[in-house]
UniProtKB/TrEMBL annotation:
Coiled coil: none annotated. One of its GO terms (biological process) is iron ion transport. The keyword Signal applies. GO terms for cellular component: early endosome; extracellular space; plasma membrane; recycling endosome. This is Transferrin-like domain-containing protein. It comes from the Eukaryota. Residues 1-22 form the signal peptide.
Length: 725
């Protein structure tokens, strides 16, 4: 019998150590964890019954497993190792590195001879910069090391940190070249190049639209062909450069400490890491021997290989080893020690510019932990402002919103259930997580299939409703439907509208004062709610799983038990057996958006029948925050670096530590902003705009009363004119 632990996702190669027979035998399992799977290779390496493959969505999962001491092996690329190093304990251990045929990049700065050193004398020099678009994974943190040695920001609160940075670069350097995009905001990118044209003057006739084919090599051509004074390059290109003509006499190296070095004794700024083999400290000896035994032809050793060529080929493929790669085994060393000896790890306090941070509010420890990984990933990528992670007081969404309202935090993701509540707390949208089609909120009104009383929406008045959560997306969509069909007046008091329209009902959360929804008839809206726990009060109205009628499945239970005559639910919130198996929902019939009953039972209706179909939620900030532009620029950067980038070191929108929907829903492929044409985002915006428009005019008696003020002024002006006559 083989014991197989349950793990979520990932390529794990499960290594079985020799079986030890005592009164019972034990089997120790080791896993090779990766986010890349080749099914055929897994099938081959599994043939000897020693290993088993599984797949994780993010390499972060592998690192966290190892740091918990689980017997796991993984291979990290350079930026993954650089990210993990300051975030893990000494348990996470390096025992080998993958040495490629071509050494990873080593950045260097070349400056004309005659330069005396330091960074202040850079003023007025012509800077050849490679730009930010590279085939290799080279981060902004690496590409801007010289920049931050040389410039100081003005800390002008009227400008974003990005604007201040390019203003400072323009003020420091003379005619320069920094090709490609400077900002992920296209409008700002164009404006920066218009405002600071000197940073494009050295690029030639195409300016910053110039395309560098080999950026870190093309900067050296900028030196010699375009008259540059200083260039950021790579050591492998600089070596060739200094071997040509008189370049060794005309140029020299500028070192990170401001000193100078001749071409014969180069200094580098960043030495990129090799890929690393990591495991837990307790597993380091076992895994070292395993690699020796299974990958002998890849070892940097004179010892003849005894590996099986067929097994080795498939195993090497799973490890993504090329024919020219070699494995260099090292004495086990903590990952942090290994990395920090070779690269400078950015620190939070040393990276903050102008005292500006983005305080991200989170609801739980696991969200805070993922936020800290995001913080370090952002530092490593050179993103500004620096992120700080703030845990909400009550570990719930409303507390999260209050954090922002009270100025304790700057932003958070909130799901669509709290869009209306966020507006009541003076919070506004800054970005939308896009949502996979299958994860959109699909909101419908349903009745029991034996319903005969419904003819139109007015028939719903006075009848008990079953609602997943008070103040949520179903509640908001329902009120919006009633308003748009003139079934209720155009009052701004949504709490009052709803309370007066429905009968004695169950709307979980109606008893919560934290929602800030005024004129809520709590007794009426909690009348039919009760707990699944017999020790709780007979009437239990909290919006939590103890409430039998909480969420969309609970609302259907409420309807099924005749505690309500109709329910408003989100089809996407239902379990699989309700959403996709006809037997789960044949006892219900949908009331379509046009006010007609569906001609058949069940939830398999087209989009036109839904009263709304919207995205999962939004990123919100405080209305009027001075940080708005900086925050949005930061969000655009993380969308690029941690969603769109194929070589991302951190997957922001994937599960974290084997937990789904942390910081963002797992259904999120990335972020989009207010100029999006996504119709489901537009649906959500329209839904909230209707409520905000109403809230803004602060009237409580309906649409006709909006004429009161204009009519009063018209009468007043007419009276004055009559008197003048």
């Amino acid at each position: 019998m083989m014991f197989m632990p349950h793990f979520l996702g990932g390529i794990f190669l499960v290594l079985i150590s020799p079986v030890v027979f005592q009164q019972v035998f034990t089997i120790q399992l080791h896993k090779l964890c990766s986010d890349n799977l080749y099914k055929d290779s897994c099938e081959q390496v599994e043939r000897d019954q020693d290993i088993k493959c599984q797949e994780v969505l993010s390499k972060t999962e592998c690192i966290l497993d190892i740091d918990r001491g689980l017997p796991t092996l993984s291979i990290l690329n350079a930026e993954e190792a650089f990210l993990a190093a300051p975030l893990v304990s000494s348990t996470t251990t390096v025992f080998g590195e993958i040495v490629p045929a071509n050494t990873p990049y080593q950045t260097a700065v070349v400056v004309r001879s005659g330069y005396l050193g330091g960074f202040e004398p850079l003023r007025g020099l012509k800077y050849c910069h490679p730009g930010y678009n590279h085939d290799e994974r080279i981060t902004k943190f690496v590409l801007e090391q010289l920049d931050w040695k040389a410039i100081n920001l003005s800390c002008d609160t009227a400008k974003t940190l990005t604007e201040q940075k390019f203003q400072a670069l323009s003020s420091l350097f003379g005619s320069s070249c920094r090709p490609g995009k400077w900002s992920q905001d296209d409008t700002l990118d164009s404006r920066l190049k218009k405002d600071f044209p000197s940073l494009c003057e050295l690029c030639g006739t195409d300016g910053c639209a110039t395309t560098y084919n080999i950026p870190l090599n093309d900067t050296l051509s900028c030196l010699t062909d375009n008259g540059g004074d200083i260039a950021l390059t790579a050591l492998r290109y600089a070596d060739t450069f200094f071997s040509i003509g008189a370049n060794a006499q005309n140029f020299q190296y500028l070192c990170p400490n401001g000193t100078l070095a001749p071409s014969s004794n180069p200094c580098t700024w960043t030495n990129q890491l090799n890929r690393l083999l990591i495991t837990s400290n307790e597993s380091a000896h076992v895994m070292t021997n395993y690699v020796k035994g299974k990958l002998g032809t890849y070892l940097m050793s004179d010892t003849p290989s005894s590996s099986s060529s067929v097994f080795e080929a498939h195993f090497a493929r799973l490890l993504q080893l090329s024919r020219s790669d070699q494995i260099k085994l090292v004495d086990p060393i903590p990952l942090y020690n290994y990395v920090s000896e070779r690269r400078t790890i950015p620190l939070v306090n040393e990276s903050i510019q102008c005292g500006l941070t983005v305080n991200w509010s989170v609801t739980a420890e696991i969200e805070k932990n993922k936020c800290i990984w995001l913080q370090q990933a952002s530092l490593n990528n050179g993103l500004q402002p620096v992120v700080s992670c703030v845990l909400s007081l009550d570990n719930d969404t409303v507390s999260n919103l209050d954090n922002i309202k009270q100025g304790k935090a700057d932003l958070a993701f909130t799901n669509a259930n709290f869009g209306y509540v966020a507006r009541k707390k003076q919070l506004i949208n800054i970005a939308y997580p896009e949502t996979h089609m299958q994860q959109l909120s699909k909101i419908v009104i349903v009745v029991r299939n034996d319903t005969t009383w419904f003819k139109n929406f007015t028939d719903l008045k006075g009848r008990p409703i079953c609602l997943p959560e008070y103040g949520g997306k179903e509640w908001l969509s329902f009120i919006d439907l009633l308003r748009s069909n003139n079934v209720v007046n155009n009052s701004c008091e949504y709490g009052k509208i709803f309370s007066e329209f429905v009968g004695q009902s169950c709307a979980p959360g109606a008893n919560s004062k934290d929602l800030g929804i005024s004129n809520t008839d709590v007794d009426k809206l909690c009348y039919t709610c009760y707990s699944i726990d017999a020790t709780q009060p007979a009437r239990y109205c909290n919006a939590d799983p103890l409430n039998k009628f909480y969420d969309s499945l609970g609302a259907l239970t409420c309807l099924k038990e005749a505690s309500g005559d109709y329910a408003v639910i989100d089809l996407n919130d239902l379990p699989y057996f309700y959403s996709f198996k006809p037997s789960g929902h044949q006892e219900f019939t949908v009331i379509a958006k046009n006010g007609s009953l569906a001609s058949y039972n069940g939830f398999n209706v087209d989009e036109d029948a839904l009263i709304s179909i919207i995205v999962a939620g939004e990123v919100i900030v405080k209305n009027g925050t001075a940080k708005f532009n900086d925050i949005q620029l930061y969000l655009r950067e993380i969308e690029q670096d941690f969603a769109l980038n194929l070589k991302k070191s951190f997957k922001l929108f994937e599960e974290f530590n084997h937990t789904k929907n942390v910081l963002f829903p797992d259904s999120t492929p990335g972020l989009t902003f207010s100029d999006s044409g996504n119709k489901y985002i537009q649906n959500y915006r329209t839904l909230l705009e209707h409520s905000e428009t109403c809230s803004a005019d602060n009237n409580t008696t309906g649409g006709s009363d909006r004429l009161t003020v204009p009519v009063f002024f018209a009468v007043f002006i007419l009276t004055v004119l009559v008197r003048l006559v």
